Amino acid sequence: MTESRAMVLYVKKTNYIEKASISVNKKKSEAEDMTTFVKNTKRSLELQMLKLRNQLAMTEDISKMPDEVKVKFLFSNLDKDSNSRISVSELSDGLRKVNAGFSFQEGLEQAIKDIAMNDGDGDATLDREEFREYLNKLTMNTGITFQELSEFILMQIIFSEGGNTADEETALKIKNEGIDKVVKNLAEYYNAFNDVRTKDLFEMFDADGDGTINFQEVALGLYKIMGIMSEATKLALDVILLTDADDNRRLNYNEFVRVILHICALEGEDFEPLVSEFVVSMYFAEPIGLEDAPEIGVAVADYNGYKDWVDTFDEAMDVMNVLMYAKMQKLFDLWDVNNDGSISWEEFALGCHKYQQSVDNAAAHDAVVSAYFAMEEYDIDKNQGLEKQEFAKFLVNYAKESNKDVHELIDTLAVISLMRENSEEEERYIKALTATWLRTIKYEESYNKNENDDYSYSVSFKNFASEDDDDEMWA
């Protein structure tokens, strides 16, 4: 008997034992007398022992299998419909058996990614050769031998009671066409991402070598490929707006790959033939002519103007949303200690210290510095206080900079402001330090006015008390 047939027989035995156990356990639960209950309990234990002996024999035989037989048997266990290919549905089921903590969504996403990265023929499945290569990559990534990996996966697949449920399998069948499309698109992306020609293109577009590509570099690169500046700048605007996922006005390598694939789609061509043409065009392109130089300048100015407008509009909408949030009003009232409708530098520092002390045990001095910079940037009318709209703008931008949800940030600040009190010493210190700095500001304000300069918060930090010189503030 071959190893593969022996494994099939082991699996059949296990399945028969499990079915018999279900039947015996049912009889045990329905037993109407002690004799029947004891009899079926004993039978249930015997079946458990039989199952364990069968599994033990199976693991011993698995360890003796040649690697190729293990691959064949593992492949056949995953290939439920026996079509010699492993689909996303089949692989996700296997992944969830191997990884007991995987949710349905996690198993599906991992299966899509794994097949996309290893699908050489682009059919959104893994044949046996592709599956073997997939296992080889897993071996390298996990740092264990192929024998150890294959035995572990086999045992998990065979013995695990996890995997996709019947309802989940039905859902995957219904969505099969859409899932295949996702796999193919992702496979195309991985192919382009790992292609050395794409990397060469990126380096040629990245004129200043900073590892990112701005609008001007995209437009100039496309001009070298297309030869017509007006078309290059228009396409540059379209693709950078479409692919700049983090909205920082620059493309990293991941985003650049999507630009190239988007251009291929617009041209109705596959990546493979077009990317070589792009590289050749970049190598042999003529320098930008004098007649085209003004056009690229105008295009850059138009792009930056549009992005500035979008950023301003988005920020205004975010500020409006925050102003309408009820807890923001509560937070403003908590920080506006004297209830004059404006948060002063001192009040901001006191509220800020409560938060910083709770989050990272920061010193009071840090809160005063934070308050200074907040006033410098957000006190638009320069009245030495933040009104509600200015305070809301600060919250919106601070949330973005710290990668927090602004509503969750407001909730946290409000709770901390309610629950924590600054000590008398901390309050005295903060009040004294802000008063000292404000005197310096007023002095320089007076000086600037005498020099006919606009009022500014600009203050030389060499005039500010350092933490080392702050002991007198506690007096």
From the N-terminal CA to the C-terminal CA, the straight-line distance is 93 Å
Read across the widest sheet, the strand sequence of neighbours is 1-2
Q: Could you tell me the mean pLDDT?
A: 80
Low-confidence stretches: 455-475
How does the overall form come out from the CA principal axes? Answer: flat
The radius of gyration is 34 Å
Number of strands: 4
Report the total helices.
Answer: 21
Percent of residues in β-strands: under 5%
**H-E order:** HHHHHHHHHHEHHEHHHHEHHEHHH
Biggest β-sheet description: 2 strands, antiparallel
Range of helix content: over 70%
Descriptive labels:
two-stranded antiparallel ribbon, 73% helix, 2% strand, 4 strands, 475 residues, disordered C terminus, mainly alpha, two-stranded antiparallel sheet
In words, what does this structure look like?
It is flat, with a radius of gyration of 34 Å. By secondary structure, it is mainly alpha-helical. Helix content is 73%, strand content 2%. It has a two-stranded antiparallel ribbon. α10 packs parallel to α14, α11 packs across α15 (293-323) and α16 (326-335) packs across α20 (406-419). The chain has helices at residues 3-29, 34-64, 67-78, 88-98, 104-118, 128-142, 146-159, 166-174, 176-194, 196-205, 215-226, 229-243, 253-267, 271-283, 293-323, 326-335, 345-360, 364-378, 388-401, 406-419, 424-450; strands spanning 213-214, 250-251, 343-344, 385-386.
